[in-house]
TrEMBL record:
Listed GO MF terms: serine-type endopeptidase activity
Family, similarity comment: Belongs to the peptidase S1 family. CLIP subfamily.
Species per Swiss-Prot/TrEMBL record: Chrysodeixis includens
One Pfam family cited in the UniProt record for this chain: Trypsin
Protein name, as recorded: Peptidase S1 domain-containing protein
N-terminal signal peptide: 1-17
Length: 276
């Protein structure tokens, strides 16, 4: 039934990513039509490398920092061939993914993976997970938590809002590498019914869709942030979940888990307070 949608389950890259340096990467083809973000304008953006065991295939996803200890990503980023990943490394404060010596970057292991109890891999429902870092991370210019939606806006549908999505994911279907530099793209939030119609009426509840003219999120962007701006503060409204099986280079909406529906669970697990 869901064969027309694709959950980019773990984007498996062949090595540590060092193959993608400089001119060998076509940076114009990542997050389709997106732009390279200014350095550290999204200080909550996280890159996640994960595997099952110490020798399993390496997966890549995005995430967002919620506090000094917790981050949020997509549930499907936590599984590989049905097994839950247990070796996850989080890269915080990064811009140029493969530059190990970049200023302001922190690399931390993940100590605990909490997948939403109602996550359903067959329908993509509740595609959200919380990861606890093995060490508390210091907040700096380059590493900062993102603001969760306030209670006062938790019932808004945000339709028509301009939203920003970001990631190192590849936008071109079949492109072999993740983007070396963090990219971002503007989308417009659309209503659930409109999104549902565009995606063959297969949309589950608790999602938020972003429309864009050509190309949306892609492999490797998943788990990453969709934000809106209120009073000059970025608010995390979505976690990148899936796109149509037609691929990334289409004008079909990208689908995100709607964060505002999970505030109580997030707060319970992470201890992050939800503001009014
Ligand atoms: C999408 O459409 C289907 C079929 O009408 C419906 O069952 C489902 O609840 C809809 N999803 C959303 C999020 O509205």
């Amino acid at each position: 039934m869901f064969s027309t949608l694709i959950l980019w389950s773990l984007f498996v890259i062949s090595a540590s990513g060092s193959k993608c340096d400089g001119a060998n990467c076509n940076v114009n083809s990542r997050i389709v039509q997106g732009q390279i973000s200014e350095q550290n304008v999204r200080p909550y953006q996280i890159a996640l490398y994960s595997r099952v065991g110490t020798t399993g295939e390496l997966g890549f996803c995005g995430g967002s920092l919620l506090s000094q200890e917790w981050l949020v990503t997509a549930a499907h980023c936590c599984f590989h061939n049905g097994d839950q990943v247990d070796h996850v490394q989080a890269i915080l404060g990064a811009h140029s993914l493969y530059d190990r010596y970049e200023n302001g970057r922190r690399v931390l292991n993940v100590a605990e993976v909490v997948v939403h109890p109602a996550y359903d891999a067959s329908t993509f429902a509740n595609d959200i997970a919380l990861l606890r870092l093995a060490n508390v991370v210091q907040i700096t210019d380059t590493v900062q938590p993102v603001q969760l939606p306030y209670r006062s806006i938790a019932t808004h549908n945000f339709a028509g809002f301009a939203a920003t999505v970001s990631g190192w994911g590849i936008a071109a279907d079949g492109a072999p590498y993740v983007s070396p530099l963090l990219r971002q793209k503007q989308m417009t939030v659309i209503t659930d019914p409109l999104c549902n119609r565009s995606l063959f009426n297969q949309l589950t509840e608790h999602v938020i869709c972003g429309s864009h003219e050509s190309g949306g999120t892609c492999k490797g962007d998943n788990g990453g942030p969709m934000t809106i701006v209120q009073n000059e503060i970025d608010i995390l409204v979505g976690v990148a979940s899936f796109v149509s099986a037609n691929g990334c280079n289409t004008n079909m909406p990208s689908v995100f888990t709607r964060v505002q529906r999970y505030l109580d669970w997030i707060s319970e697990v992470t201890g992050v307070p939800i503001l009014d």
